[in-house]
Amino acid sequence: MTVLIVDDHPSFRASARTLLESEGYQVVGEAENGADAVKAARELRPDLVLLDVQLPDIDGFKVAEQLRRLVDPPAVVLTSSRDRADYGPCINVCGACGFVPKADLSGAAIAALLVA
Amino acid sequence: MTPAWRPWLYFGPAALIAGGLAVALTATSDHEQHPGQTIALVLFVSSSFILAGLIGWTRRPWNRTGTLMVAVGFGVLIGVLSEANHPIPFTLGALFGSLFIAAFVHLLLAYPSGRLLSRRARVLVGTGYAIAFLAPLAESMFAARETCKPHACPENLVLVSHDHAAHVVATALWTAASVALFAAVVMLLLGRWRETTPGLRRILRSVYLFGGLSIVLLAIGFVVTPFSGVGAVFVSVALIATFTTVPFIFLAGLLGTAIARGAGVGAIFSSVPERASPDEVQEGLRSALRDETAVVAYWYEEDEHYVDVEGNRLDLPEDTRRRVVTRLDYGDQPVAAIVHDAALLQEPELLEGVANAARIALERDKLLVEVRARAQRYRALLQAMPDLMFRISRDGRYISYNAPSERDLVNDEVIGKLLWDRLPVDLADRVLESGRAALGGDPSVIEYHLDFEDGRRHYEGRFAASGDDEFLMIVREITERKQQQEELEASRQRIVAAGDAARRKLERNLHDGAQQRLVSLSLSLRLAQNQVAKSPARAEELLEASREELMQALEELRELARGIHPAVLTDRGLEAALEALAGRAALPVEIDCVEDVELPPPVEAAAYYLVSEALVNITKYAGASAVKVSIGQVNGYALVEVVDDGVGGADPERGSGLSGLSDRVSSLNGKLVIDSPPGAGTRIRAEIPLE
Q1: Is some CB atom of chain B closer than 8 A to the CB atom of A54?
Q2: Partner of B57 for a Cys bridge, out of B7, B40, B471, B648, CB 3.0 to 4.6 A?
Q3: Neighboring chain A residues of B518 at a CB cutoff of 8 Å
Q4: Which of B520, B524, B541, B542 should be substituted to probe chain A, the one whose Cβ sees the most A Cβ atoms within 10 Å?
């Protein structure tokens, strides 16, 4: 399964890549802001976008909506160092499959969201 | 029988007896040519004086005019003794027969009080009595030979000689002395007439006219008699005519005025309207007393002094010859007083009648005048107040105003204008509404602003009823207070905003720093966990990286906590906290802290952040080589000063750091002064009250 990681913190991108690859995911790209994320998704056509909510330009919810409008849209999983409760209903209405707190990130957690 | 009637008791019978004797003496006289005429004349003149005198005496017991008139009457009767055929009464009659003329002069000069008030008058009267005795004495001592008809005169007991020359000299001498005396009397009367007040002149007029005429005729008679028999007769007739008129004129002067006018008092007062103003009452009094200068004074109990009809303070003048004060009291309680012409004292009935009538009116007026006096006082008080003030009628018209500073008047024209002529419509409506509320017993305050050429000014208007149909608007400028309020409000808002910004920054720092590190740590640990079985060496590597991450997270959390509140300030006080700040600073900082300085925690925190922020600014912008920080405490103020030797030119408007400091200080009612001339370093000084 191909993955695009979107986050403005390089350390998180590196950790996430290592973690997901060790569980069999194929990380095809990284982006550090919303605009780059949409561009990369259009070019790389990943199966999954791991999307940070807090980005320097546009927030993750808006990015998720734009991704959903692409031809053959990727599955989107939102992530954040904040808790899910901090964002309320936004996560359900933006078209994302779900939310994983950064600290709980693992291949299994993502797989569980995709199956559901 | 009242004591006032006593004169009649003694002098009435005495006069009858004396009159009877006079008739008997004259009728039996052997040297009287015209006994009938003489009797008629003597009785007429003497009884006129005695009757008029007794009436005056009883009606005015304290006035000696009546007594003097009685004396003149008896004086006339004494002269009749010279009709006696016996030498002793004849001689006595000749010697004392002229005393009545001196008494008459006495009467004239003592009028109207009956007392000789001036030294000159006393001297003249004394001289008169002396001449009236000495002249007949001299003439009798050197008498002409045979003057009596039809029979010779009785023996003259004081005769010295019948020498003709001596007789002429004596007669001439005493005639001259008498005429001189009469002239002096007439001069004195004329002088008095000129000086006297209009009120007194009214009383004196007829008395002086007829009395003076009698004196002049007497003088003429004295001069003419020795030379011309016809002239003497003519003068005598005129003299008798005036002389007998005089007592009645005296009496009229003494009583008549009151009789003539007594009826007028009531009439005058009834013509004063029922609800007359104090001014009208004073006018009524003036015409009743026929004294245009009379002044009514009302007792003002509150301040214990008299006031005039306008309510102004009036100190009663001392009594003088011309002006006297008649007090109208109820028992010991003053009600009012009338300051009037002294002449009115001669008309006590009039004065008393008027005073009684006036007392009632004045008692009522006193209330009115007291209100005026109070109003006067309030007016004076209002004028002394530093506030702008307007009296406005119920329908919104300006009645009067008091403006200590013309700059607060939107328009110089005030009185007679309507609120809407001078103020913006909505403000005029508000003013009238508040004014009417005040009239309804609900005083209120409004705040408003007006735009002047030099800017907007804020005012506070207070309202109070000042009458049934008018209210007072008291205006005070509050521009300064308003500006301070606005500044305080703005600085509070900036503090709130700064607090929000600080929390946002803190959240961001937490998120970007420690939290990210902990996230990484969590992921590293998960990776290590995955690798423990497969590759223990890789797992150990990951654990080492995790520990490193954890150390950094801890350091960032410490740094953040210090930013929220420095622990050293809480634990060890301001001086230690400042030392710690100085230790971390990038340039040398000298701390000069007064020993044992103990400031309230908010002031300590403000001082700490002031220094901290100042050091950040200095490091960033000042290019300084050294900084000195002083903390002191003077007169209930904490003083914090940060001085550097940098480039200066710091502008509090430009950087948010300095304005944030200013807000922090002003939130504690303190004052921040930044002195930063270009090229000469920067001095930041804060004064914060400790209360």
Answers
A1: yes
A2: B7
A3: 81, 103
A4: B520
Inform me whether the C-beta atom of residue A11 falls under 8 Å from chain B C-beta atoms: yes
User: What's the pLDDT score for residue B503?
Assistant: 83
Chain B contact for A115 (CB, 8 A cutoff):
no
Alpha helices in B118-197 (DSSP H): 119-141, 164-195
Predicted complex ipTM exceeds 0.90: no
Q: What is the pLDDT, as a whole number, of residue B146?
A: 64
Averaged pLDDT for residues B486-507 = 83
Q: Which of B146-155, B374-383, B607-616 has the highest mean pLDDT?
A: B607-616
Handedness of CA B396, B400, B403, B404 (dihedral sign): negative
Q: Report the residue of chain A nearest B531, measured CA to CA.
A: A22
Residue whose entry in the numeric block shows the structure tokens 């939107």: B410
Residues of chain B with pLDDT > 90, as a percent, come to 10
The pTM of this model reads: 0.43
Decide if B407 touches A, using CB distance below 8 A.
no
Cα→Cα distances B597→B197, B566, B664, Å: 87, 19, 20
Q: When comparing pLDDT for B118 and B565, which is higher? A: B118
Non-local (6+) Cβ contacts of B468 within 8 A are: B439
At residue B127, the pLDDT reads 94
Q: How many other C-beta atoms are found inside a 10 Å radius of the C-beta of residue A100?
A: 19
DSSP state of B115: S
Which residues are A5's β-sheet partners?
Answer: A30, A50
The values of phi and psi at residue B332, to 5°, are: -90, -5
What is chain B's mean pLDDT, rounded? Answer: 82
| Average pLDDT score over residue span B654-669 | 74
> Distance from B535 to chain A by nearest Cα, in Å?
12
CA torsion through residues A98, A104, A107, A112, sign = negative
Identify whether the C-beta of residue B306 lies closer than 8 Å to the C-beta of residue B297: yes
Partner-chain residue, chosen from B511, B522, B530, that has the shortest CB–CB distance to A103: B522
Closest CA to B609 of B574, B634, B583, B649: B574
Q: Determine contact: A9 vs chain B, CB below 8 A.
A: yes
Residue B260 confidence (pLDDT):
42
Question: Given a cut of 50, is residue B262 above it in pLDDT?
Answer: no
Which residues of chain B from 506 to 545 reach within 8 Å of chain A, CB to CB? 511-512, 515-520, 522-524, 526-527, 530-531
How many C-beta atoms surround the C-beta of residue B40 within 10 A? 12
Residues near B560 by beta carbon (within 8 Å), at least 6 away in sequence: B506, B509, B510, B513, B514
Indicate the pairing of strand B305-307 with strand B388-393. unpaired
pLDDT < 70: residue spans in chain A: 116
